[in-house]
Amino acid sequence: MSEIRVVVNPCAAARAEPYGSARAAVLNAEGFAAARREISAWPGYAPTPLRVLPGLAARLGLERLWYKDERTRFGLKSFKALGGAYAVRCVLERNRGVAASALTVTCATDGNHGRSVAWGAQLFGCRCVIFIHEAVSEGRRAAIARYGAKVVRVPGNYDDAVRHAAAEAARNGWFVVSDTSYEGYRDVPLDVMHGYGVMADEAAEQLGGAAPSHVLVQAGVGALGAALCASFWLRWGAQRPRCVLVEPTRADCYYRSIAAGRPVAVHGELATVMAGLACGEVSELAWRILEHGAGAVVALDDEWALEAVRALANPAPGDSPVVAGETGAAGLAALLALAPRADLRRQLGLGADSRVLLIGSEGDTDPQIYQRIVGRSAEEVLAE
Ligand SMILES: Cc1ncc(COP(=O)(O)O)c(C=O)c1O
User: Domains in the chain, ordered, with CATH?
Assistant: First the structure.
């Protein structure tokens, strides 16, 4: 029996609570606007589609279901294209007196963030070294190397790779472009999160300005969740959607942190097919938004993610096929796991009048893994 757990945030802000200056010191409207101005001017920029899934909504007993499909984001197949590359641009901007070719950017990644940093480095002409951990697939390694970065595999898990990148950067005078923040390191992760805000803006505009009742967003270190939560709070105030974080049970640092009311780290292998979510420690700055901004956290086993990838590839009547990687499908995985659990749905306020936004944060970022799960390639799925 696959496991699913829900914790409703005992410290969630009241609906009427304003966004406020403490949160604005982390993520703010000016930061979001600056990122949007820059990113929307890059070659190849186009908003990603917001898919409407009436067939799945009916099957799941919801009023509406939308899926923000990040597969086409700048050809990188994930929303991460927005954050890492924008942060590289900001590093270069802060070092305007130095030739880009003399600068090296570096980071740890479980795939998608490193791909974005490597792409940004190539786009803006600086050097790039990316650290991956033991469990990162060969396909994801190759996808980073394709952008000209040096890719180094190190022992341990994602959090070990983060520490490794920081140590190598200090030794070599490189710039760490991390998507997670820690003590004394905040400018770059803030740029990353402000970059992600582009997706939130697009989704809000594609929804015609009407807020959904829920947004289900996958949480690794929480940068994506914090960016969406902050952006929607700033835009919609008391009408903002309830922000539900989704995590693998084996890397459930937000589940534990929200339950405890303070950051709690998870150690060990963090083994999950939801590769982008294999993070054991919350980002300090993301936590400052999510500690009161997250309404709840759902932790679930990998089987649901695989089922969700297949459900999107084999659509319900009335829906078109959607290509999602295991991490990208996490929000739908939560809905599938919750479907037979009226008790948990009630806790989350999910019912026949719910209008739910899912964040399809990645497409087939590893095509071989995708084919193994679905039995067909992304191209075959989309051709049907
Ligand atoms: C596809 C995908 N979705 C979601 C996430 C989670 O983002 P965050 O670590 O900012 O919570 C990641 C992180 O790598 C990812 O690659």
Answer: 4-78+188-383 (3.40.50.1100), 80-185 (3.40.50.1100)
